[in-house]
Amino acid sequence: MGKARGRGGCRWVPFLLLLGGCDCGGPAEDECRTRADCPAGQVCEGGRCVAADASDVPGDDAPPECSPEGRQQCVGDVLRECRGGVWTGVENCGDTGRTCFEGFGCVTCIPDRHYCDGQRSMRCAADGQAGTLEEDCSETEGSACDATIGLCVNLCAEAAGRRSNVGCEYWAVDLDNWWGRDAANPDASAEQFALVVTNPQPFPIDVTVEINTAEPEEPPVLDTAAVRSVGPLELVRIDLPPREVDGSVEGLNEGAGTALTAHAYRVRSTAPIVAYQFNPVYQMHTNDASVLLPTHALDTEYRVLGYPGIGGTLALLGNSSNYGYLAVVGIEPGTTVTIVPTADVGAGGPVAEWTPAGTPIEAALGPFDVLNLEAKCPPEMPYLQCMTEGVTDFSGTRITASAPVAVFAGVECITVNPPGCSDGCCCDHLEEQLFPVRAWGTEFVAAHSPHRGSYDLDVWRILADHADTAVSTSLPAPDDSFVLGEGEFRELYAAASFTVQADHGVLVGQFLASQGCVGDRTGDPSFTLFPPLAQFRTLYTFLVPDTFDRDYASIVRPRSAAVTLDGAAVPDDLPSCTRESIGSFAGSDWEVLTCPLADGTHELVSTEPVGLMVVGYGPAGSYAYTGGTDLAQINLE
User: Are both 248 and 182 inside the same structural domain?
Assistant: First the structure.
């Protein structure tokens, strides 16, 4: 085919597709480049579809007759002319890198149309033989040439219009981790906190991380913590200084736990990126990671899904500081936040006294402010009873705000022991940025984590926001069907992948078991949220850090979808991938593909929406996060 440029072609544009669009719109309803662009009974003349006359539509056995003499027509990129009453081929425009355009013959661009020449917006001359520069998009920060229209667009504004994990501004938090100083277990809370970002653009961008040195609720006094240049499709790790959110002084563990600080990090980029936080980034005995959600995808209503704090091997050895936590981050001045906790909250910061579960907590937040709440055992409850009954669990906690906020939840360090586990070692840090309630869904494929041994149960939690939410799964009874109340969750255990369907929006979370519960004693607990089918994507640019031994992608796909990972067909060109059949669900036949990954940036492309989870294991730690998700407001009840 020729290479004339202008509207009407079809070319994949990865960085625009990542935002949810592609250069495959084709011509407008009555516009055309060749006869193939027009409906039956019409031909392309002068770039418009018009009614065909008798000479344009010969019978099956008739010669290609035509009139009047000298009339030209395009058939694909072949220019033909009416000579002696019959159509005669004149030139194949594609042979010279051009294309055939009705009424103009062979052209280098579509007459009077805009097109992209790299990052330059060009306008084609009236004769279609040359183009002139209208704007160099690279000269405007955050701008790129959109091949669907041939004009410069602001990519950050484009990203903000499509709610997903791709964006230009994020908020990160150095969440509470286990504190312990001895030779065997270095202080995980003081280890290197880091962001890892990927640039999906075909041009370099800059990423800036800012911190606030003012006190909470005061006007921010900004300081730059890091500035990095990120090349096209490049992965960059950004190590950041510690910013304790539990009220502790750096290097000490003397904070109240519940605290209000101004210790969030603001991450800004000159064009859309994908961002994750690792806490810590090294393969420690207690670490986890979270995909970060951009500011434009945040909201005002959340339900917390978490896990009980306190307990596990370390607590039995005398360390009782492994609390469950939730952290709310302000992004706009004067934001009022109301939290109705499902666990007792210790005093600290704006929480003047011990607050029993069910008692609303209200706080005012500004940009960079972090309200960190820690779940505590009731004062009258014996420690061992608190540890075994899981009363320090914030799951079901409702959070509402007067303006959008970011919400994180997890546990400093905890063991996850499914039924039948004979060895509870070891505890690990849990953290995740939570999806807003309005981004929840009703249909899920819950993909099992990459297997680590013969006994390998994943722990799952399904949380409801709506009263009388009916849930069905493909698990055996009694977990095949149940009803959840408002803010209620159910814990499930599964040795394989399964499906979930609900009549109201739910949130689905996976918790990896402690390494003592699996055969090869690798990895440890990690927490990740699973997007519903309605939030799946067709393109993911994601990353794998270089600090873990084994990394995997779990791809949830309908079998009808053609999927490539870094250009290789999955699974045909990647024999190391394993396949697990899920069966028929939500109108498609599903399967889970689990593929080993090398360190660095990866790209997954599919002809239909698919899900992606990324998991990494080390000798005494793990991480897990969704490789990306849309965050459309689909749960509006």
Answer: yes
Domain end call among 96, 119, 152 = 152
CA-to-CA separations, 345 to 217, 305, 359, in angstroms, rounded:
22, 16, 9
Pairing verdict, β 481-484 and 131-136: unpaired
Per the model's pLDDT, the better-predicted residue between 254 and 11 turns out to be: 254
Helix (H, G, I), strand (E, B) or coil at 313: helix
| pTM for the full predicted model | 0.81
**What does the DSSP assignment read for 451-514?**
P-SSS-PEEEEEEESSTTEEEEESSPTTTTEEEE-TT-EEEEEESS-EEEEEEEEEEEEEEPPP
Is 2 inside any structural domain? no
Apex CA 521: angle with CA 520 and CA 522, to 5°? 100
Domain boundary among 101, 128, 152: 152
CA-atom Rg of the chain in angstroms: 28
Least confident segment among 166-170, 322-326, 573-577: 322-326
Name the band, by pLDDT with cuts 50, 70 and 90, for residue 525: confident
Work out the angle at residue 71's Cα, subtended by the Cα atoms of residues 65 and 74, and round it to the nearest 5 degrees. Answer: 85
For residue 438, the enclosing domain spans 167-626
Q: Are 199 and 231 in contact (CB under 8 A)?
A: yes
Transcribe 133-198 into DSSP letters: EEEEGGGSTTEEEETTTTEEEEHHHHHHTS-BS-EEEEEE---------SSSS--GGGS-EEEEEE
